[in-house]
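sorry for the late reply, my laptop died twice this morning and i had to redo everyting from scratch. anyway the thing you sent over, i finally got around to it. pasting the sequence first so we're on the same page, its 778 residues, then the predicted structure underneath. double check i copied it right bc i was rushing
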Amino acid sequence: MKFSKDFKRQMVPEWIEAYVDYDGLKHILREILHYKLSKRQETPMRSLEKKLSLHRTLSGLHRHPNDPRSNGDLENQVTGKGRAIEVEFFRRLDEELNKVNAFYKEQIDAVMDESALLNKQLDALIALRIKVKRSCGNGASSHGQRPRMPFRETEQGMDAISEVEMNTQSPLEVSSNSLSGSQTMNVILDEINQDDESAAASEINTFEQSSNGCQDAGKNSARQQDDPLEILEKVKINNTFESPLETIKGLFKDSKDDELCFKKDELKKAEGKLRVVFIEFYQKLLHLKQYSFMNLSALSKIIKSYQKITSRREARLYMKKIDKSYIGSCDEANNLLEKVEATFIKHFSNSDIQEGMKSLRPVTKKEKHSVTFWCGCFSGFSIALLIAVILRIESKKLMEKEQGASYMVNIFPLYSFFGYIVLQMLTYAADIYFWKRCRINYPFIFGFKSGTQLSYREVILLGTGLAVLALSCFLGNLYLDLGSKTQNLKTLTGLFPLGLVAIVLIILFCPFNIAYRSTRFFFIKSLFRCLCAPLYRVTLPDFFLADHLTSQIQAIRSLDLYICYYGLGERSQRQSKCHGHGVYNALYIVIAVIPYWLRFWQCIRRWFEEKEAMHAYNSINYILTIVAVIIRGIFELKKGMAWIVLSLVSSAVVVVISTYWDIVHDWGLLRRHSKNPYLRDKLLVPYKSVYFAAMALDIVLRVSWMQLVLEFNLHSLHRMAVTTVVSCLEIVRRGMWSFFRIENEHLNNVGMYRAFKSVPLPFNYNDGEEEEGSRKDD
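ok and here's the structure:
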């Protein structure tokens, strides 16, 4: 693989603008090379020109020496042009070096500040461990943590152990001035296998001597002489309201609620949070190390290429300049990586090196050939089953008979539910494919655990697998219900749709590690958080899923039919019988409102936490949509000219507002003063026409949503067909919306170099220092 391709592949997508412009520098080198080649080709012509010049001189036809068209001046002009290109090359090279130096220094300063914050968090955790051990009254380590020191029952022994343990638990507490020494790291790594008190105490002294260059050395020594449990007097629990119960308690919060209660559950929760924080911090350091290595490699290859083309000594001089630069000489990232590894292994993995490194290192997603094979098989089976269903309907001429049309109206909505889900999955697979093509970091945006995100092939595999199940049951229904010899099996075939729902639910909630368990549980967790809005803090997967639910109104209403058919005993009757039940009619309206109601409360929660008026305006949009859906639901049940007018007016208002919100806020387009008129400054799709086409298509598909209001006195079968087509178009529109929404989110992350998620810290210090409860993104 060429270095340029590997360089692009290894880039952190959110930092792409902070990398060396390798292609730009290579372009300038090509200009230098073309100039050199053209100069060599002109050499034979110059010898001929010299002979002609000698002939002109002898014949008295030579030019004046001051004539700018003379040969000597021409040669100087050409030479000057070549040097100008090289000067431009080094000017650009300086700009790129300064850019990466500035960015790398900014990131290193940020991680150094963060390491100091993690030191204090770790001190608090260790003090809490000691306090919990004391309250337990035994020397066993709580929650699986091995005892680091021999336990003594006397108070003096406990105090000595506590002091030694506290002094050995701050391997990250060093400043940037002391990180260059390797002695500190060796001392910390040796601590992992030390269990006796005297050895640990001697290592503490060595650590203190090796950290004399620390700016906070005096402060640390003073702190180490005190009782480490005094830290707990300055610490409170950082409550982030991550559960419904915590949110409800937060409304009636008392200052005493954040006090430490020194229980095992509290310790376990704090350990879990800090473990996640250390893993995320380690990932950030890995990215910084990779950033340094790739940029230095790019600069080195550029200099070598320049030296190969020009054979000038400036190349070696510039390599020395790169080596002395901040990114070339700074080793803080490597030192911090080793310290975090040692700390994590000792305190969060029971000194098990293999287990600790497995938790720290990111898991690489590997493509499997079996996925591609079964994806093709299920796709072929789905197409074959779909053709078989169409042929069966045509052979029985169901569309031409009133009884057949009634049967289709009765049975089709039960299976269209799965059709909507399959279409949603296929559009999501297409989104994943184009996100990867455009280098959009969708796993980070959605918060997928490293190595668990599904590829587009795997999503297609799940979608086509569900299509095979649904089409097989539908075809079975058609053969058994419409066959002359199988009339006595109608009771059994009526349970096919319900059995299909049961199979899907069993697979979805299966606790075993099969069928992409982590993805299934991630979906269940996000769905549960959506249903509990506004009791949970809203994350992007939560409102992203809720937005998709608003495009699945017909699928959700199909669940209402399941309740009618199997709960109210109408599965053998026509669908019109369901409208005779007040429960069904109420659910018909309420179920359609639920997704918009959830989005409304999510907007309220975000407005309450983020204090941004945009979320309040968006909540008003969903209130108007709820009103429009209720009016349309009543119109479908009661009819009447007044209701149709109200439906058209309310739906038109919602379409205008929602379309504006899609294009301007969610997609970030229609910027009049941007570099790309009426788009935005940064675009990931190389063709601008795609964005204009997407905006036009979004408007058309939004307007088609109003088509459901206008029935045009259609037959029930045709009305069902129109409803199905419009619902499918809405799902396709939502899939298109998803691509540009995540693209806009990715560009926002790129603009702020935000490549890591914010993780809440377990403890909050109240010692007079202003500390954030959660880490800020880069």
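The chain has 28 helices and two strands.
thats about all i looked at so far, will dig more tmrw
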